Amino acid sequence: MWDEIRENTNINLDLFLEIVDFCVGASCFCFRQKFYVQISGTAMGSPLSPILADIVMENLLRRAITAANILPEYIRKYVDDLFLVLHKDQVNAVLATFNSQNPRILFTCEVEENGRLPFLDLLVIRDEDGSVKTDWYAKPISSGRILNYYSFHPSDQKLAVVNNFIDRVRRLSTTRSREEQELLIHQHLSKNDYPHSLINRLLHQPPRTDNPEKPTIYRSIPYVHGLSSSIKRILHKSNTQIGISHSYKNTVGHLYKNAKDPVSDLSKCNVIYRIDCRDCPSTYIGMTTNKLRNRMYGHQTHVNTLERKLLEGHQYTDPEILQLQEKSALIHHCIQHQHRFNIGNPSIVDITHRKQALQVLEMCHISTTSNTVNHRTDTDNLSCAYAHLLASIKDQRVERIALSTNRNNRRETDDQTADPTT
């Protein structure tokens, strides 16, 4: 496909193949202290995988049709599912040709029974006169489960799921009457707890038209019931070209334990970290896009430089020492108060995969953490819109710490009272 690809890039074919090979070969992971690399196929979840899979299937299809010397009367492909119209005597030969193209790609064949053949969610029906009809189809093992009416999702998403289901049943069912279609729709949607009144209203609503004025900017925000929909409504009324999509923290992935080896805190990137002072209750909040271990090396290098200069006979008030204060608020505290931090034992307070969000997160954590040694200028770029919310979070955090301290003190007092040797 290089003739089609070259129109969209300025690099040559050799470099392009080298880049693709590098991206595909970078699929590795660690499991039980052993590293594995994928030697065949592409990794699930990689943005490149669907594109390469489609190219491979297109190439395989062309080669198989050429090798079989048989031109099907009709052929359609969806990812790795094929629908072909062949004479029944040609089926086995064509199947053998497809399976001879790649030893790792093997096809199975399903032929029509009683003039019926399913393909995806479509049932193709061939009448005796040669005409073809269609019907909406679900596999016998299908649970019929779609997005439940009581699920923790915005109402517009639920309505979109229902409208899409109604459209597919109506467009794919050429053998059912209008009443039969509505009965089928009611049966499936009722199993997912959708009220009959809502189903009836959506069944008889006028045809929907596409909105020609689509947002030019999209932003994702966590879904909070009642709040997220209000934000979306306000932005819509303000005529701003901003589209809102919702993200969810309580996903299926959170219900299962990750089988891969966990990444140590020091090996994580894009984190907000905290380092406590060994000599006072102060703490330092920082961020890094690199591995946390590398950032700790940087802090330790500054401290080592300070220690070396002190051993050389310099004083804390010497210009050579004071120049180090500009490196970070952490070393500034070390010099001004002659304290040291637990650099070897940092803790991660937040993490994100969006690098552009790190600065905002760092400022938020600095604002909500008491006794920080960070400079006041570290939060100058924080929007005042967050002020009230961050102040409430800080007050709640202080209350939790006070309650926890009182609880621990009472527990220690009770233990001493119960111990007769005390």
Describe the structure.
- The chain is α+β, with helices and mostly antiparallel strands.
- It has helices spanning 2-5, 13-25, 48-68, 91-99, 155-172, 178-191, 196-203, 228-237, 292-311, 319-322, 329-337, 358-368, 387-418; strands spanning 28-31, 34-37, 74-78, 81-85, 116-119, 122-126, 132-136, 217-222, 242-247, 271-276, 283-288, 347-351.
- The protein has a three-stranded antiparallel β-sheet.
- The longest helix has 32 residues, at 387-418.
- It is extended, with a radius of gyration of 32 Å.
- Residues 1-141 form the Reverse transcriptase domain.
- This is Reverse transcriptase domain-containing protein.
- It comes from Aedes albopictus (Asian tiger mosquito).
- Pfam families: HTH_animal.
- Residues 403-422 are annotated as: Disordered.
